[in-house]
Request: fold
Amino acid sequence: MANKRDLKKDINYVFGDIIEAVYYWELENTQKPTKESDAIIDDAFAGFDELIARVNDRSVEDTRAHFKAINKDLESKGRALIEKINKLK
Reply:
């Protein structure tokens, strides 16, 4: 892990790309949001807020392990949201 700034950028890029993918899906398929696509976007915002709050937590003693855990959570949340996008009909 390089530093806190890079982790914040990674979080921003991952959730931004997921939201962008949902918007592309809406344009290609229905031209309007569905309940499922809105739920994915809401989950992406919630995940972003949660992870950024964890990054900004200054009461952590072992920052290296803390950031490593955040990075793992980012990967798992990102994969879960991508799977939801792939299941959209």
Q: What stands out?
A: The radius of gyration is 15 Å. The CA atoms of residues 18 and 52 lie 16 Å apart.
